[in-house]
Specification:
Elements lengths: L1 H4 L3 H4 L2 E5 L5 E6 H9 L3 E7 L2 E5 L1 H14 L6 E3 L4 E3 L3 E4 L14 H7 L16 E5 L14 E5 H7 L22 H6 L25
Parallel strand pairs: 1-7
Antiparallel strand pairs: 1-2, 3-4, 3-7, 5-6, 8-9
Length: 215
């Protein structure tokens, strides 16, 4: 895999959904790690063809990459080696692994920004992460805690306006009630892209009460 490792970073940084041997989603990794698993023959590719899921060993997937490059160039990320150009799989299945993720969705700044879509929950405008802050709906000076239901994205202007008051006290209204997400918010954002629609069948929202982590 040394040739693959020296390829352009864009393809190797693409995200790949990992399934256990029972086709249950367990995590998201980058393409570099996915190719290592495939080359060691501990995983296989899961692809969508004509609405059905088909599995391929790495050797067959490598051979099919030429076909996909000719007829589906825009549907894949690509990794170039000295000898071949490989399509980055969107899903791989680890053949001998049957565990499930056990961690709760992590409460952190990145996940709150992702949950709220980088949108200030008071004025409704979208900002870059550098222009956003976290606001305690019930201020900490009034006993507010760090929790999914008490933290929201807020722009600097709205946060300063609200100060150490509740929205009601500041005559401000939340766009939506903050809740704890059922899956990693960053992964939920990816599902909004056509590129990752093949993941959806393995990410039943009613099922995921644990974190599907993204490495």
């Amino acid at each position: 895999m040394s040739a693959v490792a020296s390829s352009p970073a864009s393809g190797l940084d693409a995200k790949v959904l990992v399934l256990n041997r029972f086709f249950t989603a367990i995590r998201v990794i980058d393409a570099r790690r996915a190719f290592v698993l495939l080359s060691k023959e501990v995983a296989e590719v899961v692809a969508v063809e004509d609405g059905a899921y088909v599995t391929y060993p790495f050797s067959t997937w490598s051979e099919l990459s030429d076909f996909r490059r000719e007829f589906e160039p825009d549907q894949h990320d690509w990794v170039r080696t000295a000898r071949v150009t490989l399509a980055v799989p969107k899903i791989v299945r680890i053949l001998g692994y049957d565990r499930l993720p056990r961690e709760q969705v992590k409460l952190n700044r990145r996940n709150i920004y992702a949950r709220d879509g980088n949108r200030c929950q008071y004025c409704g405008k979208t900002f870059s992460t550098r222009e956003l802050t976290l606001d305690h709906v019930r201020p900490r000076v009034q006993g507010g805690e760090n929790s999914w239901t008490n933290l929201v994205c807020a722009c600097v202007k709205c946060n300063m306006r609200k100060g150490g008051r509740t929205p009601e006290q500041a005559s401000m209204r939340l766009i939506k009630v903050p809740v704890k997400p059922k899956r990693n918010p960053a992964i939920s954002l990816r599902l909004g892209s056509p590129k990752y629609q093949s993941w959806r069948a393995f990410l039943d929202e009613a099922y995921w009460t644990v974190e599907l982590s993204e490495d």
